[in-house]
Amino acid sequence: MPSIGAFAAKTHFSQILEDVAAGQGYIITRRGKPVAKIVPLPDQAVSRQEAVKQLFVLARSRIKRRGNYTIDHLLTDLRKGRR
């Protein structure tokens, strides 16, 4: 992992963010001593396929509990944060 001085990091912050988004991490130094690390976040995004799968699971559970449960009911519940 490359290191970069605080002033250079400030000057080139946009490029550093692009590199981090691409998977590269950096150690930020001040007067030659490491003070911080900038690393990519772990991928926490839910894929579209997983989101649809969760939606169907939720819809099935609602239909079983409530009987006549439409997609409009489901969307209303989702917007209101109900589970």
From TrEMBL:
- List the InterPro entries hit by this protein, alphabetically: Antitoxin_Phd/YefM, YefM-like_sf
Q: Which domain of life is it from?
A: Bacteria
Function statement: Antitoxin component of a type II toxin-antitoxin (TA) system.
**Family per UniProt?**
Belongs to the phD/YefM antitoxin family.
Q: What's the protein here called? A: Antitoxin
Biological source species: Candidatus Termititenax persephonae
Organism ancestry: Bacteria, Bacillati, Candidatus Margulisiibacteriota, Candidatus Termititenacia, Candidatus Termititenacales
